UniProtKB/TrEMBL annotation, chains A, B, C, D, E, F:
<dbReference type="InterPro" id="IPR050251">
    <property type="entry name" value="HpcH-HpaI_aldolase"/>
</dbReference>
<feature type="domain" description="HpcH/HpaI aldolase/citrate lyase">
    <location>
        <begin position="24"/>
        <end position="232"/>
    </location>
</feature>
<dbReference type="InterPro" id="IPR005000">
    <property type="entry name" value="Aldolase/citrate-lyase_domain"/>
</dbReference>
<dbReference type="InterPro" id="IPR040442">
    <property type="entry name" value="Pyrv_kinase-like_dom_sf"/>
</dbReference>
<keyword id="KW-0479">Metal-binding</keyword>
<dbReference type="Pfam" id="PF03328">
    <property type="entry name" value="HpcH_HpaI"/>
</dbReference>
<keyword id="KW-0456">Lyase</keyword>
<comment type="similarity">
    <text>Belongs to the HpcH/HpaI aldolase family.</text>
</comment>
<dbReference type="InterPro" id="IPR015813">
    <property type="entry name" value="Pyrv/PenolPyrv_kinase-like_dom"/>
</dbReference>
<protein>
    <submittedName>
        <fullName>2,4-dihydroxyhept-2-ene-1,7-dioic acid aldolase</fullName>
    </submittedName>
</protein>
């Protein structure tokens, strides 16, 4: 086993990520076929639960795409379950303190590093030669969301927690805690300054930085700025925005 | 109760239809919000079964959109089930003979017109004042797919069957039986000639004609030609094509 | 194995049947606990499909209640599936001709009597000593719905088809084909005359007669009249009518 | 967007609430049609999980009824998920201390009031003009269950936590912690004294008080006493009690 | 695209097939990992419906195993649906006459050969270069079950129907129609004689012959006899028989 | 109500337990029929969620087998939900401290012993005479997993927590925290020494000790050593290992 997402980060390449919010393995297959490097099942804000997450991961297994999961919250039970089901990485919302960062790492790693419980029922099917245990602590990507003012205040301490592979920025929540309206693809100078600080501090520690984007055009700019994990499409938005566009053409016609 | 799709046809207006192939009530809601006149759950080629069809119809009920269902095949059991579940119209594939057209009408109408069995468990929730039975035979749209050479050979006889409200053209299947490759948004002159014949014969009998389109631009042209029921978006295509486009932008970037 | 419903008929006792239209194994358990002799999953007009039917039968297995299924239509595929899943009887809608009656019997019986295919994957779990095959042709109840004028015209010929264990009257459909509005618990003299004829002809042939009722009070009268299989409750009606009643109390209060 | 339940409370009107414990969107529709002001999906003691909760909320969206959810426990992950899925209020069990009350409010409110994460994927479909964020902190009803002796000991401090819109009494759990058997529709004088205290303290702070009732008759009395949120029907009880009643009529007959 | 099962037949190799009767994509993955050449979702006697069939096919897509489906009955609607969902072959029960054989071939082939309708929504994801249509008529395996005395009587005429790729023997049903008890792994001389006739007549026409076996040991013997498609494991039996064996060890211990 | 598992422990008998990791009520029925004393739905490492757990418990209710659930983690919400759904015992992973042991007991017991909330919607269906509440605190088995070095360090204090009915050993996790590779059926002398200590300390306090085994043969040895709760089969392993064995026979043949 190995994790192409972590390999890309080691090589300084940016990962193109898609987002699965529709609880359908068929929709997930359609996304997988498009050629993303990774797909993230969004159990936090998507209409996804554990079973739909498993179904999505089963459906994309045939494609050369790395399965990731954003869990609903920092809770060890669900983190263990999605890893056992085959997720190659966990994005965890609202990591605001070093203690939370440590708890996240612990939930994702077997002893002696952490407290993950052993039983990778589905994950081991796809591990090489039964060696899932031997490499899982290295392979699984631990991705902490930095998305509040509190997290920024604790940034260095959070990044210093051993075992954080990447951080992921939620622009809407970050904005809200800064007193700005929620939105993606932000341009405010104060936010840009924050992004630069995040990239700099993360780079010092060899930690990749990811961003949730609304458009590929914006994501491309962010890759140039240094982001190495960029979400650029969301199945629910593809349906919703695409349908609105088609209806608009008809109504104008 | 009344059926806005049939009302539009009576008034000569074209209906803008969306297509639901992803078995997800959430995806269906996103489509419903876009403003289509009607949404068709595709039980034939979509990844849909009876339960997902019910879930999609439940989810779009809050929106001003008329729920239609394309059934898998001319089979009275499933036609009755989707009508009982609240479909306001049935699109039935492969109506190639007058006998098949009669069987379709019969399955959609209560006696003495047809043989539909009474028990509109979900449909009656949304009927007005318990009067579902009184108006259902008028309200339900019976839509026969004309999509083979055999159907063209029998066209007038099929159209003469009392109770057919509309016909719906499947360009791929029609093409295949004519020796052409399957595709939407056809431009072949021989196909245009067929479309003209269909529109003319249907118009004589006050029957609306619908078409499955790949793009709204093509659909607009077809409305000008006389089509009154045009499918212009497909949730699965919105995801698949949209994702490919986004990834392409990233890979080029 | 044996079938308590058929045993009751042999002994001249009336069977009290409940109706499952809500696709929930939990709702089915609540019904099962109430003490019905049998419960019928309604795949025709209920919001039920094959999988919800299996789940309902699994959930009621712990209770002393005989599982029956009303199939959507006379189609051998689904009849075989529900029997394999453990149904002890099949109620089939719209048996209007002796040919349809014969097809129904054939679908429910193994050769040489019929054409049922062998593979009772779930049913055999609950058969005694693996002897499912040996007794299934005797145990399974074949119940033909008589619910149209056409069926009345063919009544004697239908009843003469060997293997029909019972007939079941659908008062709404029967009414519709007679030009009456659909309803349960009918009182029209012409309908009573029909019921008397049905009871008399069936009794001659040792065939039980069942009726779909709206209230237990009416069902009790019908048992006195000779009916031996009476549906008296419907989970969907219990919810819908009960909720309306509770809200009415509150609004008056 | 606005929340009719909160509007009613502002105007001093009592809200008539129904309870959804059967995991079925169809059952939920039947309840919705009955005319309740609000319906609460019970994820704590009902046979409901996140996906069935979403399905129930989708199915009742077409009706003028406000969707609420009782979450299984005070856990921010699931609170965020049901709000994102469109719940207009959260009932949280076992709020026994001011700290728990604060955590509940925090989970339901965006910064700077709380720590809810932004991503109302389904909720925003039904928000007006994309303005979900602008009004959500005002619209969402935060309802803390007071149902233990410990909560009574901390009552004033709990009620003083800013952001609690209502409290909801669980008579069974309250009884248990007082050494009484679990039951609804209690009449014990000591309990009445507690209810009076709750109503008085809540009224001082403009907080509505709700009660879980077993019958509409009892609920009416409680409205006169001052309760402004009264649960009066439960789909599972409607099935279970109704079926028992019907069978009893038959067995007596 | 190509079909490794048909390739094996062309090369005279025997295909080792597994059987999926448990409606679980996870169970299907476990089977897929075991190294079968093909896996057949059993929609006839297994606890499978269309949606569970799709889920099983999605889950095994990552493995080098060819997905086949046994449909419930000869019905064009479901045959089209499983092919559109990605089945590379259809096993159809109870093909007893040349007319039934022709109907089966027709349902599996596009015009001009047959009457399959075009819309391979999931299948095309895994077709090469969008060329699904071009090769599907060649790639899809049409497998007719020969399992009754009537079919034996019509054997040559059935085998002469163009487009039958293989026949599949159901030993239980075959036995029943011959007056023998249902069982697998038969040894009766009269059955062996039948098998020899089947193999001889099929070989003449270049048609592969398959058999449903209860043990791999018996299947190996049958391969030596000439069978080229042998089912040797069944997930439900692996659970049921394996659990009985483990409990027996414990009870004896 | 009573709990046969606790009865067995009182009488010093060993309980033979099966393990459900496949999310299928059908697979659960097959396991139940095999004759285990108890079956445990594994929500931690199995592909199970709350709804599949309920379905499995519904399906095994007809069999004389006691339903247990391993919850994903020590979280009161899910513990309450599985008990309300009818679990007769809870196995909780990773009980490492007396505080965690107390929290587990509290979540499983009604006041005044614990903090379980009342509402046994499904459990009460199967309680005797509505007396679920009266005996639940005695009947429900509270089973703490001892599976880390930390738990061993705290062993006596954990066992001294009132209300722990049994402990359950996870050999893989125990091994990992001891620096050994994860596996079942361990033979290392240091592990045997630990098992002996666990059995001795538990016996002093009348607490049963359970073990997760890979084979019945090993389990029999462990029963002789003193274990009174032995898991000996796992549905997922029966499928996976059984299929591998069958394919191996074929490939060798």
């Amino acid at each position: 086993m190995s994790n192409p997402v972590k390999d890309a980060w080691k090589q300084g390449r940016a990962v193109v990520n898609g987002w699965l919010g529709i609880p359908s393995a068929f929709s997930a297959e359609l996304m997988a076929k498009a050629g993303f490097d990774s797909l993230t099942v969004d159990m936090q804000h998507g209409i996804q639960d554990y079973m739909s997450t498993v179904a999505c991961m089963q459906a994309i297994q045939a494609h050369p795409v790395t399965p990731l999961v954003r869990v609903p919250w920092l809770e060890q039970g669900i983190i263990g379950k999605v890893l056992d089901a085959g997720a190659m990485g966990v994005i965890c919302p609202m990591i605001n303190t070093p203690a939370e960062a440590k708890a996240l790492v612990s939930a994702c790693r077997y002893a002696p590093v952490g407290t993950r419980s052993f039983g990778p029922v589905r994950a081991a099917i796809y591990g090489q030669g039964g060696a899932y245990f031997d490499t899982a602590n290295d392979d699984i990507a631990v991705i902490a969301m930095i998305e509040t003012k509190q997290a920024l205040d604790n940034l260095e301490a959070i990044l210093d927690v051993p075992g954080i592979d990447a951080i992921y920025i939620g622009p809407s929540d970050l904005g809200i805690t800064l007193g700005l309206p929620p939105r993606l693809d932000r341009e405010e100078p104060e936010v840009m300054t924050i992004y630069e600080r995040l990239l700099k501090e993360a780079a010092k520690r060899n930690i990749a930085v990811g961003l949730h984007n609304g458009t590929p055009e914006y994501a491309l700019k962010m890759i140039k700025m240094g982001f190495r994990f960029t979400t650029v499409s969301n199945d629910a938005a593809l349906v919703g925005v695409g349908a609105l566009r088609d209806v608009a053409v008809m109504r104008k016609g």
